[in-house]
Each structure stands twice: as structure tokens, then as C-alpha cells.
Amino acid sequence: MDQEFFQSGALFKQGDQVIIGWGESEWSTEPSKTASHSFYFPRFFLSEEKPWLCFQQTKELSLDEARKRWPILDSEEKVSRKWTPPSKGLFHQRFCRLKELLDSEQLVKAVPYLFAERGDAIDPSEREQMIAAFLSKSDTLSPYGFWNEDGGLLGATPELLFDKKGNVLHTMALAGTLGHHEDTDAFLNDPKERREHQIVVESISRELEPFGTVRVGEIGLQKAGALYHLKTEIALQLNADPSFKDLVSALHPTPALGAYPKEEGQEWLKGYNRLEPRGRYGAPAGVYSKERDQTTLVVAIRGVQWDKEHSRLGIGAGVISESRFDSEWEELLRKMRASLEVMGLG
Questions:
Q1: By the 8 A CB rule, do 219 and 194 touch?
Q2: CA-CA distances (angstroms) from residue 330 to 30, 92, 148, 183, 189?
Q3: Are 48 and 42 in contact (CB under 8 A)?
Q4: Per-residue pLDDT tens digits for 271-312
């Protein structure tokens, strides 16, 4: 099964279970009516008619089972290839244009992004290496991905879009990355970082209010591999049963990966995408488990997407009016290094 899985498969961590699919598959407009699990992998702008990936064979593994099945490789066995970092000049140009929009209050927050690149595909041996590395860090990161002979997407994200089971939905605001601060206390109390984070908290809460009662937790820290982020957990007690589409539309993209205000931000995102096509970077990714009637979606960051000829690692930085270019550029580089390290591809 493993050989077939690494040729054409999918993987997602839902709670303490690792759900995998392999073998024959098809894209569908909705989750499979017969399979135990269906995977959701749209592109960022949700333009696909068939975003659900349904496999003929799926299976749940415990984390221990998955880690034993795909252990970390010895260093001499690891594949390591050179990545071309993003352009500092290009990021500076786009940062300055965004700052004009922020300073004129056309936008309050936005996330410019770039890609580190490589001139080949992620091959089956690297997929195995990456999955083993992700599983070893799955206490703080959530592995996700799919792949076949034409390309794929594979990563491990710290950010939950939502988890819905019954009439309770859990989500989070995850914005702000530990940077120049000497310790986590200074980071946690930094006014700029807290303002950036609060924009995300308030936006998510406002989007969820029409669906029920929103409860916002206390701000804290989340470790994500080698990085730390500000995190606030948010819960929603549903008054009704909204459609999957309504929930995704309400929450994606949050200002943590998109732009705010949402309507003006959508126009900025589309314009930026014309300059730098993002594919599935920052898109929802997830799984629906039929027996539990549970849907879990994450935000597809800290991951690689590839086709037969290229591989791209997306990295972004949240920018508000107080942001400074040098700090945001350093944040991009930290995220790139941390992502490659988590993948075992650095």
C-alpha cells in the first residue's frame, strides 16, 4: 500500500487521527456518499466546481501508528535540494505599494507573499521524508496534502480554519510571529503585534455572529516548529445548521492570511494574485469524516505545491500601518527557514 500511497494519495490530521487515502480517486462537487472520508483541496479563490477529492480507499491511523509506519529518516538517507529564495527587491516594491493603501486607510491589514522555488517536482521519496518529518511535529502542526503524477500539495500548518462537529464549531485567530524580541513575554505584550492580532480576532468574531453565540478565549502563544505565534481560540455555539459553503465563505480568508476589510481586501488579493499566482497557498484544506459527521479545515500554509517541473514554497507576512520593511522581510526569511526545516528539506 505504501508505494501506491506515495505515488497517488492524500493525508490529513484530524484530532488525534491521521487520515489517508490512496489508489483510484476522483474530484467531486461534494463529499462521497459511500467513502468514510473525503478530502477538500480547493485553490485559494474557491473557483473549482469539484473541490472534493474522493479516494476508493481510505484509512484512519493513530499518531503512534503513523509515526511507526513512516519514521524519521537518518540524515544520510535524506534528500536535500537547493531552493531559490524570494526576491528582496520584489518584496520591497510590493510592500511599499501596500503601505500606501494602509496609510491612506483603504486597507487596515494585508498579507503580501512570495515563493521560494525549485526547478523540479517533489518526488515520492521526498513525500515520505516530508510526511515523517511532519508527523514528528504534529503536536504543534497539522499535516495536510494530496499528490499524484501531475503534482500536489504537502505541508504542516499551525492554523485551524474551523473544526465542526455537531452544533459546535472551533476556530482560532493566529497572527503575529515572534521576531526581534528577546523573549516571549516581550512578544506577547508588543503593541504592534497585539493590534495586528486583534484585527483578526474581531473580524472572525464578526463573521461568526450571525450563526450563533461566539466565545472568545484569552490571547496566548502557540509554538509552530521553530516559530511562535499569537493565538486566540474562538468557539461558536450554532443556533442552526449552516451549509458548509456558508461557513467557508464566512471564514476564508481571515485577515491572518488575506486582507481587511474583507470586501476591499478581496480586490487587493485578486490584484496581487495577478502579479503572483498563489494557487493553493493559504487556501482551505481539510477532510470530512462521515461516521463522526465531523469537518476539519486548516489554512494551507507552511507547505509546498508542485507540478512536474516546479516546486514552490509560499511565505507571507502580515502588514499593518505600523509595519516596517526590514522586520517583515526578516519574518519572511524566518518562515522560509522554519518551513524547510519542518519539512526535512532544508
A1: yes
A2: 41, 12, 34, 17, 20
A3: yes
A4: 999 999 999 999 999 999 999 999 999 999 999 999 999 999
Torsion sign, CA atoms 234, 242, 35, 32: negative
Per residue, the 3-state secondary structure of 250-291, as one string, reads HHCCCCCCCEECHHHHHHHHHHHHHHCCCCCCCCEEEEEECC
Grid coordinates given for 163: 473544526
DSSP secondary-structure letter at 31?
A: -
Would you state the cell numbers that stand for residue 344, as one nine-digit string? Answer: 526535512
- Show the CA angle centred on residue 77, arms to residues 72 and 82, nearest 5°: 100
Q: Which residues contact 68 (CB under 8 A, 6 or more apart)?
A: none
Instruction: Give me the amino acid identity at 73.
Output: L
DSSP 85: P
Position 78 scores a pLDDT of 60
Q: Which of 279, 273, 277 is nearest to 303 (CA)?
A: 279
As a whole number of Å, the end-to-end CA separation of the chain is 28
The secondary structure of residue 293, as a DSSP letter, is T
> Per-residue confidence at 224, pLDDT binned at 50, 70, 90?
confident
Provide the 3-class DSSP secondary structure of residue 78. coil
> Where residue 193 sits, what CATH number does that domain have?
3.60.120.10
CA angle 60, 62, 64 (to 5 degrees): 145
Number of domains in the chain: 1
Q: Which domain holds residue 88?
A: 2-343
- Answer yes or no: are the C-beta atoms of 249 and 243 closer than 8 Å: no
Tell me the one-letter amino acid at 99: K
List the alpha helices (DSSP H) in 178-224.
184-188, 191-208
Contact 63, 137 (CB under 8 A): no
| pTM over 0.85, yes/no | yes
